[in-house]
Amino acid sequence: MKESEFNYKGHRNSYTELNEVYFWTITINKWQHLLMPDENKIIAINSLQWLVQQQLIKIYGYVLMPNHIHLMWEQMCMKGKEFPKNSFEKFTAKTLVNKMKQ
To answer: pTM of the prediction?
Structure first.
């Protein structure tokens, strides 16, 4: 696939495949506004940047809202036994929880 092309199939469920472009939304439990402070947004952005640098994902666009994130992205390969979306969710959640405990 050329860099300028992507194959969007418009699936609307939680199942994802590698090398397919998805519009994906992740919501914060109980719609809490955990991404309101800029430093919390940076945690999510840094996590996405790391996945891009590791060539695990390609991002075509994203929107960070106070209580959810929209991504137009493609998961390129697994991180061990884990899909990149699971790595993103786990790392970002753990980092935010640790920050809130301080």
So the answer is: 0.82
